[in-house]
Amino acid sequence: MTLSVRPCTVEDRDAVVALWNACGLVVPWNDPAADFTLALSKDNSTVLACLLDGGIIATAMVGQDGHRGWIYYLAVDPAHQGRGLGRRMVGEAESWLAATGMPKVQLLVRSTNQKVLAFYERLGYAKPSSTLMQKWLTNPSP
Predict the structure, then answer these.
(1) Domain at 76, CATH number
(2) Is 133 or 107 the better-scoring residue by pLDDT?
(3) Looking at the whole model, is its pTM more than 0.85?
(4) What average pLDDT does this structure show over 89-108?
(5) How many domains does the chain have?
(6) Per-residue pLDDT for 86 more than 70?
(7) What is the 3-state secondary structure (H, E, C) of the chain?
(8) Who wins on pLDDT, 134 or 34?
(9) Is 43 part of any domain?
């Protein structure tokens, strides 16, 4: 049983998108395949994959905007949850961001997802005093 972490390649897209779907991370207004492809097409982002005997069992999409880092699509195959893989992938993402010189990392969690909020709080993440605002530049499909 060999566990390793590496950046994804374009060939990983279908397996990664299937994992994201299995973990309930996909919402109607985001195209996960397009998100994956965009992350791999830029120098300031990637998707990290944790492999067990060659199969992808966890991911973290990571990127930086020149000022702060971001983590997206943290996923652990439901059959492998509870084994510290989420914690490991957050650590891998933080290391990737630190290597790019980012002083902090941010992520978004739906306010109704108490289990995930508690997970990140255990890792030292805290709710900031600022409010996120957004504006769609494209018309998202509901």
Answers:
(1) 3.40.630.30
(2) 107
(3) yes
(4) 96
(5) 1
(6) yes
(7) CCEEEEECCHHHHHHHHHHHHHCCCCCCCCCHHHHHHHHHHCCCEEEEEEEECCEEEEEEEEEECCCCEEEEEEEECHHHCCCCHHHHHHHHHHHHHHHCCCCCEEECCCCCCHHHHHHHHHCCCCCCCCCCCCCCCCCCCC
(8) 34
(9) yes
